[in-house]
Specification:
This protein is of the alpha/beta class and 533 residues long. It is built from 24 helices and 10 strands. The protein has a 5-stranded parallel sheet with strand order 2-1-3-4-5, with helices on both faces. A 5-stranded mixed sheet has the order 7-8-6-9-10, sandwiched between helices.
Length: 533
């Protein structure tokens, strides 16, 4: 039975809902009714419920206040709001408080029953997931204290070759683990969301240990069903598999089939994407470290291949044609000089596809993109000899966690280079003034926008910039920034119903009072007077 708390300031509504809903038949228990949100919050401080059914408009504390309280203090509790037509739009704002359902008054018993059944299905799913999670968690805590952990450590030493084979086999024999075969293969598994492709905080690191345990259990069950070996946990919560079979079996195709089954089962069970690197097949325990190392190396291709890969170390990988890549780099330089945007887009797309199609590690890709950045910079310097490639441009590529991010940085740099070259027909001063105006137009809403920021963007001294900007526009930087902000403010005052403080924030003023003073100084009217026409 799921517990329900009913909250409404109208006694007739409370009585009608209490009496006309067949709570028990629906799988619910109405545990209490409250007159307003304040009383309900007091009740929730001492009692837990599964569902809060509340009106939106009530004295002391309304349905929005109650929804906010439940969201912050009882995240597992579902909220159902019912409201009249006049406040339904207001009620929909409660989406930020994770309200599960909205019902328009008058509420019929049938309609509310249908909503409660939907909520019950959702709660059933969540409870099932929690039970499954608790089961894994309990098993995980048991695991960290029992022989499985010792076995994993021993297998890790055996596979990496950091301990004498005889000693490893003796330790495994104590737990009735025997590794006998004519051919061996090590497979490495990473859970993508916890991998180096993503930023991982301390909370995720704790979660990754539990999820790795789940993946290990699933993998072990499937491998044992095929009588093909066992799975264990390596360092950094990576799951590994050690296949060992007789030479009569086709380990290459069999291991591939098992790994696909593991990928599918892990996703179906936990909705987790995993990447798998299958090391080379070896014929002795002494060669296990070679198989292990080849499996780890395969996972490095995720940088360009993306998540959920399955790579077989026994497969033939085509050698990338670097000549084709160099040709595309030349096309990028040519397109910049010719100011041909279509040609540039095509070349960038070809570079991206080349990187993805080949088998390139992160270090290789970074090196190629650094080379391409220098080629682009050389093209720009032909028209602007003061242009310099900044270290931060190289660092953006180096520090990008994923290939898509690195390519985005590179593409943006190429587009910026195209802008510089396209303005080369004008005087350098005119072009820099135009770039400055573009920057102001794009960033005027930033309250921290200042002269130093724009000079750093243009790679020019503040004194030089101030001189050329005043000459080109007739205004100082501050005057132009204020002018742009006020023009945007005028437009917003004419076309929207935003409050003064909202407009001030949108046009880059952190202090609404100062915005009003500046606006009147420029226009002769207060924002309110200007909005009235």
């Amino acid at each position: 039975m799921y517990k329900v708390l009913l909250v409404d300031d109208e006694i007739l509504v409370r009585e009608a809902i209490s009496e006309n809903i067949k709570w028990e038949e629906l799988g619910f228990e109405l545990v209490n009714v409250c007159e307003n949100g304040k009383i309900a919050m007091d009740y929730l401080e001492e009692n837990s419920v599964d569902v809060v059914l509340t009106d939106i408009c009530m004295p002391y504390a309304d349905g929005m206040d109650l929804s906010r309280y439940v969201c912050n203090n009882c995240p597992q509790t579902a909220v159902i709001i019912f409201s009249g037509y006049s406040d339904f739009e207001y009620a929909k704002q409660a989406i930020q408080y994770k309200v599960a359902e909205y019902i328009l008054k008058p509420v019929t018993a049938r309609e509310l029953s249908e909503v409660l059944l939907r909520i019950k299905e959702k709660l059933n799913r969540e409870r099932k997931e929690e039970q499954k999670y608790d089961k894994f968690k309990k098993a995980y805590h048991t695991y960290t204290k029992n022989e499985s952990l010792i076995i994993s450590k021993t297998l890790s030493c055996l596979v990496k070759g950091t301990q004498r084979i005889e000693k490893s086999m003796e330790e495994l024999a104590e737990f009735n683990v025997s590794i006998v075969g004519d051919q061996y293969r090590v497979v490495a598994v990473d859970i993508d969301v916890y991998s180096e492709l993503y930023e991982i905080d301390d909370e995720l690191k704790k979660e990754s240990a539990l999820m790795s345990f789940v993946v290990e259990n699933i993998s072990n069950e499937i491998i044992k069903n095929h009588s093909a070996g066992l799975a264990y946990r390596d360092s950094d919560n990576r799951v590994c598999m050690l296949f060992y079979v007789s030479k009569l079996r086709n380990l290459s195709s069999e291991a591939l089939e098992i790994c696909r089954e593991i990928q599918e089962t892990v996703y179906e069970t936990m909705k987790l994407s995993i990447s798998i690197g299958m090391g080379k097949i070896v014929s002795s325990l002494e060669q296990l470290s070679k198989s292990y190392q080849s499996a780890i190396e395969l996972l490095k291709y995720r940088y360009t291949k993306g998540s959920g890969i399955l790579l077989d170390g026994e497969a033939q990988f085509s050698i990338a044609n670097t000549t084709a890549l160099e040709q595309e780099f030349k096309k990028i330089a040519e397109s910049l000089k010719e100011q041909d945007e279509a040609k540039l887009e095509e070349a960038l797309s070809n570079v991206e596809q080349w990187m993805i199609a080949g088998y390139n590690t992160r270090n290789v890709v970074v090196a190629y993109l650094h080379q391409a950045l220098r080629i682009v910079s050389d093209a720009v310097r032909e028209v602007d000899d003061q242009y310099q490639l900044k270290e931060e441009n190289l660092a953006q590529i180096t520090d990008a966690k994923r290939f898509e991010q690195a390519m985005t940085f590179f593409k943006d740099h190429c587009k910026q280079a195209m802008k510089i070259i396209s303005g080369a027909g004008k005087t350098t001063s005119q072009h820099q003034a135009e770039l400055a105006m573009e920057y102001i137009e794009e960033n005027y809403g930033d309250p921290n926008l200042n002269l130093n920021q724009i000079c750093e963007y243009l790679n020019i001294s503040t004194s030089r910039f101030s001189s050329i900007f005043k000459e080109a526009t007739g205004k100082t930087f501050v005057e132009m920034l204020t002018y742009v902000r006020m023009e945007r403010a005028k437009s917003l005052l004419r076309k929207t119903s935003l409050k003064n403080y909202e407009i001030a924030e949108k046009v880059g003023f952190s202090d609404p009072h100062y915005f009003s003073i500046a606006f009147k100084k420029m226009t002769g009217k207060t924002p309110k007077e200007y909005a009235k026409g």
